[in-house]
Design a protein that fits this description.
This protein is an alpha/beta fold. The N and C termini lie far apart (about 60 Å). The protein has a nine-stranded mixed beta sheet. Strands 4-3-5-6 form a four-stranded parallel beta sheet, with helices on both faces. Helix 4 packs parallel to helix 5 and helix 10 crosses helix 11. The longest helix has 17 residues. It is about 30% helix and about 25% strand. The protein is built from 15 helices and 25 strands.
Length: about 500
């Protein structure tokens, strides 16, 4: 029996061909029959190009129903889906193409020229466009493709997707997610969060990372239910559509922005049964304010690019502010000391995870993969936390200095490398500072070279031309030197304390 993710999803929704799957902001409806037919057409089109099973297909496209069709077609044909954030810039894209060596790229029309330039030296054979309205050369070229396509048989350990996650050394790592990983997480979450076919998901998340694609989309398709599909998060649109939905998945920034709207109240949430939050820590103040305003308690959970979702507060039972809940069924989570020995409750240590949701390793980085797994198969998450006596996990910090801003992961070293290349800069340190809307704001502390006169705005402008906008510091502060310990390591905890308003 095939372990193909598409096969798992289709086994559920093929029995409801006339059921509305996606409803867009313009009122257009895509049924499950549409999904089955059009994903077959795209799968046939790519296969007829001679692309081999296991080949990578890059997608840097705006959010649209056709983007989901592309994702499903890639899985269905046995290729490997590689979504990229629309904010990535030339140097980042060049690295991804050279590292992943994709057979095809699908991009926004505005990026076609750039991908043609970068794709040729990287050996990309095919480049098509897909716009935010669901048009483009991909749709035009595939229009005459046949729709008779049998889902490709794959093993549960075969790759389904590669998602790049920035590294502490500055080099992005491609997390290899298998069909088994995605299937297990979708099935577990579907059951644990109590989905029924009457559920309607209000989808406001982007589609280039785990939360919006593998959690929200996969779980809803497995449910054979309806998705109210927003092209992006907008408070007005969310508030207008919540009375027609039962489930909403968001990041903490979404909830702080909703709470800032006076008309967001209990009546708006009258049909809702579940709000979930992830991708960044949810502040206890936001948790309590949301409950007081709406009567709903946000269900916070903990996941990673490499693992999907690991823990969750319960659907029925106590949801604790500041906690990401308990390990999901089939997932083992432990907090350990520096010798990988499990620690007692209320003791802070490194968080490690093991289960069918955990990725296969980093693309073409066997040594890095070996480093990140223990001898008994646990993945070293790089997060630090503790369990309470009831078995609830709390995330205390991140040992690898990860900054999570607006739900996006930012690794300081990647930004520091760019800043330090500027001729006016002697050295820099990047940290996350608490922010009421974004969770954390990326902040750069810079030491100028003697006699240099670079300004903060100039550093920010240069960064915007080289890295994704969400990675660009919101603030640049100049200092004479960086605080260091006896070993010469920059003491970022001291920098954070200095930057936090008192």
């Amino acid at each position: 029996m095939t372990a193909n993710v598409y096969g798992l999803l289709a086994a559920r929704f093929s029995h409801r061909p006339d059921q509305a799957c996606i409803e867009t902001e313009t009122g257009r409806i895509y049924t499950y029959a549409d999904l089955e037919r059009e994903s077959a057409r795209l799968a046939r089109f790519f296969t007829d190009l001679g692309i081999a099973k296991g080949a990578r297909i890059v997608a840097q496209v705006d959010k649209s129903p056709e983007a989901i069709l592309l994702y499903l077609a890639v899985l269905r044909a046995g290729f490997v889906y590689l979504p990229l954030n629309m904010a990535y810039q030339r140097s980042e894209l060049e690295y991804f193409l050279r590292d992943a060596e994709p057979s095809a790229v699908v991009c926004a029309p505005s990026s076609k020229k750039l991908f043609d330039e970068l794709g040729h030296p990287a050996g990309v054979a095919h480049c098509y466009t897909l716009d935010d309205a669901g048009g483009g050369s991909l749709i035009d070229a595939s229009r005459t493709a046949a729709i008779d396509f049998a889902t490709t048989t794959v093993d549960e350990n075969d790759l389904a997707a590669i998602l790049y996650t920035s590294g502490t050394t500055g080099r992005a790592k491609g997390a290899m997610l298998t069909h088994g990983n995605l299937c297990s997480n979708a099935q577990t979450l579907h059951a644990y969060w109590g989905f029924t076919q009457s559920d309607v998901l209000l989808h406001a998340l982007p589609l280039f990372h785990v939360h919006g694609l593998f959690v929200a989309t996969n779980v809803c398709l497995l449910n054979a239910g309806k998705i109210i599909f927003l092209s992006k998060f907008d408070t007005e649109h969310v508030i207008a559509n919540l009375p027609r939905a039962t489930v909403f998945m968001g990041v903490p920034t979404y909830y702080t922005r909703l709470l800032a709207q006076p008309k967001f109240n209990r009546d708006v949430c009258r049909t809702m049964r579940l709000f979930t939050s992830g991708s960044a820590p949810l502040l206890p103040d936001t948790f309590e304010a949301f409950r007081n305003r709406t009567g709903h308690t946000i269900l916070e959970r903990y996941g990673m690019t490499e693992t999907g979702i690991n823990t969750s507060n319960p659907l029925a039972g106590a949801r604790i502010a500041g906690s990401v809940g308990v390990p999901l069924p089939g997932v083992s989570v432990r907090v350990v000391d520096d010798r990988d020995a499990p620690l007692a409750a209320e003791t802070v240590g490194a968080i490690q995870v093991k289960g069918p949701n955990v990725f296969r390793g980093y693309w073409r980085m066997p040594e890095k993969t070996r480093e990140e797994f223990t001898a008994d198969g646990y993945f070293r998450t790089g997060d630090v936390g503790k369990f309470n006596t009831a078995g609830y996990l709390s995330i205390i910090g991140r040992s690898k200095d990860l900054v999570i801003t607006g739900g996006y992961n930012v690794y300081p070293k990647e930004i520091e490398l760019v800043i330090d290349r500027m001729p006016e800069v002697l050295e820099s340190a990047v940290v996350g500072v608490p922010h009421p809307d974004l969770g954390e704001a990326v902040t750069a502390v810079v030491v100028r070279r003697p006699g240099a006169t670079i300004a903060a705005d100039e550093i920010i402008d240069r960064l915007k031309r080289e890295i994704a906008n969400y990675k660009v510091p919101k603030r640049v502060q100049f200092v004479d030197d960086l605080p260091r310990n006896a070993m010469g390591k920059v003491q970022k905890n001291i920098l954070r304390d200095r930057l936090i308003p008192r």
